[in-house]
Amino acid sequence: MSASLLRRGLELLEPPGRAKAPPGLQRGRAGPRAAGAARRRKRAPEPGRNKATVKGRVVKSAIEEYHKKKPVNHLRENLQYMLKGRLVADKAVTEQVLAQNRGRKSKDQPPEKTEKKKPESTVFTEEDFRKFEREYFGIP
């Protein structure tokens, strides 16, 4: 957005009783030389050292830079922090929290645990069956 459009927009937003600023106080170009002066001001060299020269530069060691950026293993501190607090919540409380955080859709529900049926076994032994056969059928 140009400065002139911005000024026009601000003039529209001014309250009606307020007059324009006098021409001497207005900011803007004061003639064709003003733009050139602004360019010259931008190009003026700043005082300071010349960056093209090597004088005054500190040589950085590649090994020191590598050691600075080397990843640090925080496993030991993290384990000590985790083992410091040994408060374990009740199983009922944890189940309740998990149930509240679970969604209501069927896909969010955990599968129901079905009890494993034990294979049916008889109370009678093989000897009891033979004894019954002898008594009932009369077979020796």
TrEMBL record:
What is a single molecular function from GO for this protein?
enzyme binding
Tell me where in or outside the cell this protein is found: Nucleus, Nucleolus
What GO cellular-component annotations does this UniProt entry give? nucleolus
Where do Low complexity bias regions lie? 12-37
* Region span, Disordered: 1-56, 98-124
Q: Which UniProt keywords apply?
A: Nucleus
- Write down the InterPro entries for this protein, in alphabetical order: AROS
Question: Keyword Nucleus on this protein?
Answer: yes
Biased composition range(s): Basic and acidic residues: 106-120
Its family remark reads: Belongs to the AROS family.
What name does UniProt use for this protein?
Answer: Active regulator of SIRT1
Which gene name belongs to this protein?
Rps19bp1
